[in-house]
Write a structure and sequence with these properties.
This protein is of the alpha+beta class and about 450 residues long. The strands form two sheets. Strands 1, 4, 5, 6, 7, 8, 9, 10, 11, 12, 13 and 14 form a twelve-stranded mixed sheet that branches. The protein has a two-stranded antiparallel ribbon with strand order 2-3. It folds into two domains: about 180 residues, Cysteine proteinases (Cathepsin B, Chain A, Alpha-Beta Complex); about 180 residues, Cathepsin B, Chain A.
C-alpha cells in the first residue's frame, strides 16, 4: 500500500505543479460549454439515430471533381483479391510483375499463387521467431525484445523485402499450380493456432536453454517444432510443389505446357536487375531526417534474408521519381494510409470527409503530428500504376491497382489526388535509375538502425 501511495505521489510530481484533478466546478464549466441551441439539437437528433459518420460527412463539393483518366498509365489487366488476409504486400509485389509475365507468355490473364508464397512466408517467419527466442533466451520475459517476439510470433503483414526474400529462396508458381484455400483467403483462425503452437514451443525452448541444453539439442528441438508448423500449414494450405507442370493457352489460341521448378520459373519472369541492388524503397517520413537511409532491425521473414531498408525523401523528390517510372511503363510497389477514401467513387482526397465541421471541433494535424501520435501510418500496399499531369507535367492525380477485388472502388482501382499523396502516401519501391543524383548518393550511405516496434512500423 505504501509503495502504491509513493508511486501516485511521484506521478503527481512528474505531471508538474499545474496538474490537478477535475473538480465539480471544472465539470460544471465543461458541461455549460455544450449549448443546446437549434442547430446543436438538430445535430444531436441526427447523430443519435445514424451511426454512419462517413455518409454524414462526405464532402459534396468534391463529388465529380476527380475523374479516372490518366496521361501516363502502365498496361495492367485484371484485379486480384486478397480476401480476408493481410497479404497486401505480397499481392502488390506480384501485381507489379504480372504485366510482364502476361506479355512474356502471350496471356490475356494471369495471376501468381499467393498461397504458395504465403506458405513459405509463414514457415520462414516461424523459424525466425524460434531463432530470436533462442538468441534472447538469457533475458527475462519482460525484456522488450522478448515481449515483442512473443506478442505476435507470426503474422500476415510485411513489405516488399519479405516477398523478395521468400521468392528468391522458394521461387513462385502460377495460381493454378497451388490455388487458394479457405485458410489462405481467411487467415485469422489458422494463424491463431500457429501462434499458440509457436508460443508454446518458444517457451519450452527458453526453458531448455535455461537448463543448460546443448546447442545441438536446442537445434533438434527447434526442428521438431518446425515439423509441427509444417503440418499445420500443409493441412490448411496444402503442400507446396517441388516441381510443377503448367498448361496454359496463349492469345494465339495455342496450348502450351511448361515443366519446371518454382525457382526456375521465378528466374525466368523477373527482370535481370530485380533485387535490392537495383530497387530501393523510398519513404516520406517527415518525423525523420531526409536523404538518410534507415534499416528496421529484424524486419524480415527468412533468417538469412534482407531487412526492411528505406531511403527517406521529401514528397516532391519521390513524385518526380515516380512520374519518371510511370512514363517508362514501370509500375511500383507502394503503401499508404487508406484514409479520406470514398469507396463508392473510388477517389481519395484529404477533404473527402469533413468530420470537424459536423462536430464543430478541431481535427487538424499535419502529417508529422499524425505519425507521432499514431493517428496515421502506412497500413495498406497497392501497385502505383498511373499519374495524370497538367500542361507543365506537374502531377494532378494518381492511381493504384488494388487487391480488394473488382467491386472495390472504381472497378478495383483507387484514384487519389496529388494533395492526398502529400498527406497519406508513405513508401514506394522504385528502380534506382529514376532517382536524382542527390538521392542516389544518399542511398549509398550506411543505414541508421530502428527497432521493429518503432512508431512507423
Amino acid at each position: 500500500m505504501k509503495k502504491r501511495l509513493l508511486s501516485a505521489a511521484l506521478s503527481l510530481v512528474l505531471l508538474g505543479a499545474s496538474a490537478q484533478e477535475l473538480t465539480p466546478d471544472d465539470v460544471k464549466e465543461i458541461r455549460s460549454s455544450f449549448v443546446k441551441d437549434a442547430s446543436t439539437t438538430a445535430l444531436q437528433n441526427i447523430l443519435t439515430q445514424e451511426s454512419n459518420l462517413r455518409s454524414l460527412t462526405l464532402n459534396h463539393a468534391l463529388q465529380g471533381k476527380t475523374d479516372h483518366y490518366f496521361k501516363y498509365r502502365v498496361d495492367v489487366k485484371g484485379i486480384t483479391d486478397q480476401h480476408q488476409s493481410g497479404r497486401c504486400w505480397m499481392f502488390t509485389s506480384m501485381n507489379v510483375l504480372r504485366p510482364s509475365v502476361m506479355k512474356q507468355f502471350g496471356l490475356s490473364e494471369f495471376d501468381f499463387s499467393h498461397n504458395y508464397c504465403y506458405f513459405w512466408d509463414l514457415f520462414e517467419k516461424s523459424n525466425l521467431f524460434l531463432e530470436n527466442v533462442l538468441a534472447t533466451a538469457d533475458r527475462g520475459m519482460t525484456d522488450r525484445d522478448v515481449e515483442f517476439f512473443f506478442k505476435s510470433p507470426v503474422g500476415d503483414g510485411g513489405v516488399w523485402n519479405l516477398f523478395y526474400n521468400v521468392a528468391e529462396k522458394y521461387g513462385v508458381v502460377p495460381q493454378s499450380v497451388m490455388p487458394e484455400t479457405a485458410h489462405s483467403n481467411s487467415t485469422s483462425q489458422m494463424r491463431s493456432v500457429l501462434n499458440e503452437l509457436l508460443r508454446r514451443g518458444g517457451y519450452e525452448l527458453r526453458g531448455m536453454a535455461a537448463a543448460g541444453a546443448s546447442p545441438k539439442r536446442l537445434e533438434t528441438a527447434k526442428k521438431e517444432l518446425l515439423k509441427e508448423v509444417y503440418r499445420v500449414l500443409a493441412l490448411c494450405l496444402g503442400e507446396p510443389p517441388v516441381t510443377f507442370v503448367w498448361r496454359y493457352e496463349g492469345t494465339d489460341g495455342e496450348l502450351h505446357t511448361l515443366e519446371t521448378t518454382p525457382q526456375e520459373f521465378y528466374r525466368s519472369i523477373i527482370p535481370d536487375d530485380y533485387g535490392p541492388d537495383s530497387y530501393i524503397m523510398i519513404m516520406n517520413d517527415p518525423t525523420r531526417e531526409y536523404y538518410k537511409v534507415y534499416e528496421i532491425r529484424n524486419y524480415r521473414n527468412t533468417f538469412e534474408g534482407v531487412n526492411w531498408v528505406y531511403l527517406n525523401l521529401p514528397n516532391d523528390v519521390i513524385k518526380r521519381a515516380a512520374v519518371a517510372s510511370l512514363r517508362a511503363g514501370e509500375a511500383m510497389y507502394a503503401s499508404c494510409d487508406v484514409k479520406q477514401y470514398d469507396s463508392a467513387s473510388g477517389v481519395c482526397d484529404p477533404g473527402m470527409f469533413d468530420y470537424a465541421s459536423l462536430f464543430g471541433v478541431r481535427l487538424d494535424m499535419d502529417k508529422k503530428a499524425r505519425i507521432l501520435t499514431r493517428q496515421s501510418g502506412s497500413a495498406h500496399a497497392m501497385a502505383l500504376i498511373a499519374v495524370d499531369t497538367d500542361e507543365n507535367e506537374v502531377p494532378v492525380k494518381w492511381q493504384f491497382e488494388n487487391s480488394w477485388g473488382p467491386d472495390a472502388g472504381h472497378n478495383g482501382y483507387m484514384t487519389f489526388t496529388d494533395a492526398w499523396f502529400d498527406e497519406y502516401m508513405f513508401r514506394l519501391v522504385i528502380n534506382r535509375r529514376y532517382l536524382d543524383e542527390r538521392s542516389l548518393k544518399a542511398a549509398a550511405s550506411e543505414p541508421e538502425e530502428l527497432p521493429a516496434w518503432d512508431y512507423m512500423f
